[in-house]
Specification:
84 residues; alpha+beta; 3-stranded antiparallel beta sheet; 3 strands; 40% helix; 20% strand
Length: 84
Amino acid sequence: MTYNFTPKGVCSKKISIDLSPDGIIENVAFNGGCNGNTQGVSALVKGMKAEDAISKLSGINCNGRGTSCPDQLSRALKEALELI
């Protein structure tokens, strides 16, 4: 399943997630944001259970914004899991 998410409060404009039926992250693509960091986060979560990624990424703060691209990814993953 591919899930598209519009992040709020960060530089990234869109997060696309491919999840397997059992909740394994197959691919993550950020549109916008800090290119190297978003590529790194995407590579690190590939093959991971969505629940594990959520627990690691949730609450990460970028420059006092109260959120970050990793935090927004955790929110997107939560929403995507509800659809499986």
